[in-house]
Amino acid sequence: MSAPQVLPPKPYLVVLEEDRKYFWCACGRSKKQPFCDGSHAGTGIEPQRFVAMRTEEVLLCGCKHTREPPFCDGAHNGLPGGCPHDDPDSPANRAIAWVTDSDGPRRWLDGGCHVICADLVEHERRGSLRHCRIVGPEFGAAHQAQFLLEAEGEITPAVSVGASDAILFVTCGSGEVVICGRRSPVKATDGVYLRTGEVLQLAPHSGETLKMFLLASPPAELEWPTRVPENFDDNYPQRVVAVDAAQRVAMGPRYFQLLVDKRIGSQMVTQFIGHIPQSKAAPHRHLYEETLIVLAGRGCMWTETRRTPVGPGEVIFLPRKQLHSLQATDSDGLFVVGVICPGDNPSINYYD
Ligand code: FES
C-alpha cells in the first residue's frame, strides 16, 4: 500500500447536508479535496464513505493523518508546516493598529474579539464572596457567561448557575469547593466542574483569598439559593482536575493539558491549560467560541486590523470563526488557561 500524500497540512471547512453520502479522500491524490475523485486507484488506499448525520459546518482532514477520519483532530499541527508562524515585524503586521484605549475594562479588536482587565470590572459582594460578570451575551458571547469569584474568610453563601453547567479555574489561593455539601480540596491551577442544578460554596483556607473564574454554559446569571440541596450527581464523582505534566499534549512548539472535559462529564465545554513559546502563530480561526485567561507572561492579541498587548489576569474573548493570532512576547512564553465551547479539542484550527 502506498503512503497517503500529505497536502498542505490543514483541514477543509465544508458544509455537510443531512443524510447525504460522501467519500472522503484518504490517499491525498484527489484533485477535489477533501473528497474522492477516484485518484486512489492502484494505491491500495480506499476513500472513507460516510453519511452526514445533520446539516452542519465541519472541518474535514486535509493532511490525511487524522485519527478520527474524516474529521480533523489536530494531527496536522505535528506535521512539517502544520503550525506556521508569522513575522510580527513584517510590513503588513507593522501597519496593524495598536488598541490601547479601553471601553471601561474592555479593549475591542475586530469582530467582537476583546480583552478584559477583570480587576477593573465593578464587583458586587454577597457575604464573604465578591463577584463580577466579565463575559456574556451582552458582550457578544453565544455559548457562555463568565464570572470572577473571590472568597475570603468564612465559607461563602451558596451560588449556582441554574440549569447550566459550570466550569471553574482557581487562579490563586487554596481551600475547598463545596458542591451540594460535598467537600473537595482545591489550589491554584485546579479546574473544577459543577453539573446542572448543583450548588457551590467556597471555603478558603485561613488567611487566604480563593480566587476563581466561573464559566456557565449555556449563559446564565448567578443564582443565590437559600438552602443547599443534597443533589450531588454521584454519576460524576471527580470534580477537581489538577495540572499534571505527564498529561501534556504537544501542538507543534506549544503544549496543552485538558482539565475539565468530557472524561469527567462536561460534554459541550472543554477547559485546558497551555503554554505558548515566544512566537506568533499564523492567523487562524476556530469553529468554537473561546475564552483565554493569561496566567503568566506577556503577549499581544492580533485580529485583522487591530492588536493589543495582553498580560497576567487579563481575559481574551474570541468569537467563533474570528481570525486571530496570540503572540507570546516574553522569552519564557505565555501561560494561559482556556475554555472552548462547544468543542472537545483545542488543537483544531483552520486557515483561510
Ligand atoms: S488536517 Fe488532518 S488532522 Fe487536521
SSE blueprint and pairings:
Blueprint: E1 12-16, E2 21-24, E3 48-51, E4 56-60, H1 91-94, E5 97-98, E6 106-108, E7 114-117, E8 124-126, E9 129-135, E10 145-152, E11 165-172, E12 174-179, E13 182-187, E14 191-194, E15 200-204, E16 209-217, E17 240-241, E18 249-251, E19 254-258, E20 270-276, E21 279-280, E22 289-296, E23 299-302, E24 306-310, E25 314-318, E26 325-328, E27 334-341
This protein binds FE2/S2 (inorganic) cluster.
FE2/S2 (inorganic) cluster (FES) is lined by residues 10-11, 61-63, 65-66, 72-76.
Task: Give your account of this protein's structure.
The two termini are about 30 Å apart. The chain is globular. By secondary structure, the chain is mostly beta strands. The strands form 6 sheets. It has an 8-stranded antiparallel beta sheet with strand order 6-7-25-22-27-20-19-18, with no helix packed on it. A 7-stranded antiparallel beta sheet has the order 8-9-10-16-11-14-17, with no helix packed on it. The chain folds into 3 domains: about 80 residues, no CATH class; about 120 residues, Jelly Rolls (Sandwich); about 120 residues, Jelly Rolls (Sandwich). Strand 6 and strand 7 form a beta hairpin. The model has no long low-confidence stretch (mean pLDDT about 95). Helix content is about 0%, strand content about 40%. Bound molecules: FE2/S2 (inorganic) cluster (FES). The site of FE2/S2 (inorganic) cluster (FES) has 12 residues, from loops.
